[in-house]
Amino acid sequence: MAAAEAGAGRAVFQVRIHGRGGQGVVTAAELLSVAAFDDGRHAQAFPSFGSERTGAPVVAFCRIDERAIRTREPVSRPDALVVQDATLLHQVDVFGGLSPDGYVLINSGRSLEELGLGDWTADFRAGRLLTVGASEISRRQLGPSRPNAALLGGLAALTGVVSLDSVVQAIESRFAGALAPGNVAAARECHETVGAALAVFAGA
Amino acid sequence: MLEQIEGSVAVARTVARCRPEVIPAYPISPQTHIVEALSAMVKTGELAPCEYVNVESEYAAMSVAIGASATGARAYTATASQGLLYMAEALYNASGLGLPIVMTVANRAIGAPINIWNDHSDSMSQRDCGWIQLYAESNQEAADTHLLAFRLAEELSLPVMVCMDGFILTHAVEQLDCPTQEQADAFLPPYEPRQVLDPAEPVSIGAMVGPEAFTEVKYLAHLKQMEALEAIPSLSAELATVLGREQGGLLTSYRCEDAATVVVALGSVLGTIEDTVDRLRERGVAVGALGIKAFRPFPAEDVRAALGRATRVVVIEKALALGIGGILAQNVRNSLGSHDAVVHTVIAGLGGRPITERSLTKLFEEAVSGRLEPMTFLDLNSALVERELERAGARRRSGPHAENMLRDIGVVAAGPV
Where does a domain end: B199, B221, B243? Predict the structure, then answer.
């Protein structure tokens, strides 16, 4: 399984989520931690608050481990990165500390090449860096553009660090009313889209 | 039942299960989630009978808590940073009058320069105001400590502050087991005040006391606070039985037994310190960690005993006493008596600067090899300070330091993301 591979030699799996104030970055980290908890793991999610303004760059972290997590420092060497807003790519050092084995999931309908990241991807393992149009999926399944839950479905497919079932369960426990089924559908679709993209890599 | 929840929510739920009757509060980051959750519980009737008073300031919050407590109600509030300073005068009244109010302090820095992030400047500034101060290492400990705090406060008739790191703990989502209503009720009996304002039996509280008895009243207050050094371990042991999990008591000792170098700290940084200790132990470096849970009263005898074998003590503190240095370090030094260990002060994590295992490892290695200065600032950007000193030396009207330094590092108005 991908997660076991990623975790080789290191039990803890660290995720950093970048986005903008109002996009549900902190909620995404929380949901991921709840999904990991539902999978029977230890997890710790916490935000790095900059100025609390809508639209300002926001970072949140999630650690997942088999053992109790004691450290409180921010994640500076992530195993996986989620970028909820591709306009941050050229504003914030989103890739800081990422290992060559790391995973990256960027919310964008454009390819890595189209985002100007083509050359940069050469240093990383094929099939670990992907873009997915999570905003579009969210608009279709939910109405408003809230790509956070969708991306978690995608992250589950990309890394295997949490199961889709647990992501769905976390979403259902967090959102009320129509938000729950909409976000679940978005997470499922994103999981499928990422899974299909990975199958192409596997076949190549 | 284990749940994956935010620290603030866990604290709010636990406080609710302590059945407070009056909660006066004023919101301030990073405490807000706690009182928001409590106000919602009062509104839905989940927490009843309880009156939530949305006051106009922190000064009013503490004043209402004082009034409620004096009339026999169990009173709770929460604050942080400037909010704690704003209620400073009332804090002394709450302790001086012996009112068992419980308050969460979601630790945050104090301005200027304004800063919303975590350090211990706020609660440390009120260390001598007569309140008992307990510091939590994790959210499980923060939740459990509130149960302990109400029982301790009411047994001694003294107010208790439960200090938890703002954002780092209050906003962290992790797994914990909230005390249940049954557990809370088993540990915490209904509030039976030692003194109460009751029209049926009129008394006055808060007499003016002149030189003839002021010293004696204060002496007694000191004696009473020192009683907590006995009460905290015994109540912690009882709470451990009720909850079925270890409780820290006055302090926690981690791999100190044979440690020549012991690191002393308060609050959530202990987790990162313990990880660092493990990593150094793997390489054969004999280090340990001592966590101070009760800072007021200060468990001097226990600290001396715990540090008895150490030749070197490294005190890591998230507060700076301008003009002297460390606060915790002074208290630790004061505890050592004739034991002549070298005590280092390390100021770290001010205004939310992350304290990393990488920096701690380097620091402990320096300490073990005798290269650490008596007082240091972890990860200090000396070049930034030098540049500003040069600028200030070059001309008198060189501009405000904070703004100059932010410009130097390329940040206009906010911290780095």
Answer: B243
Which token pair is A99? 């290992």
Question: Which domain covers residue A43, as residue numbers?
Answer: 2-203
pLDDT at site A176:
86
Residues of B with CB under 8 A from a CB of A: 2, 4, 6, 29, 116-117, 138, 165, 167-168, 171-175, 268-269, 271-272, 274-275, 354-357, 413-415, 417
Which residue in the set A43, A52, A71 is minimally distant from B357, CB to CB? Answer: A71
Which of A42, A70, A74 faces B175 most closely, judged by CB atoms?
A42
Average pLDDT over residues B233-242: 98
**What's the angle, vertex CA A31, arms to CA A126 and CA B182, rounded to 5?**
145
Same domain, B217 and B135: yes
State pTM to two decimals. 0.95
Tally of domains in chain B: 3
CATH number at residue A26: 3.40.920.10
Query: Which residues of B are less than 8 Å from A11 in CB distance?
Result: none
**Which of A37, A71, A74 shows the shortest C-beta gap to B175?**
A37
- Residue where a domain stops, chosen among B243, B268, B291: B243
What is the three-class DSSP state of B169?
coil
What is the model's pLDDT at position B307? 95
Question: What gap in Å lies between CA A11 and CA A6, rounded to an integer?
Answer: 9
Per-residue pLDDT of A43-77, as tens digits, reads: 999 998 665 678 888 999 999 999 999 999 999 99
pLDDT digits (tens, 9 = 90+) for B245-271: 999 899 999 999 999 999 999 999 999
Pairing of the two strands B294-296 and B132-135: antiparallel
Interface confidence (ipTM) of the complex? 0.92
Indicate whether B413 pLDDT > 80: no
Cβ atoms of A142 and A182 within 8 Å: the answer is: yes
CB-CB under 8 Å, A57 with B4: no
Residue B58 lies in a domain: yes
Q: Hey, how many other C-beta atoms are within 10 angstroms of the C-beta on B257?
A: 10
Domain holding B331, by residue range, is 251-377
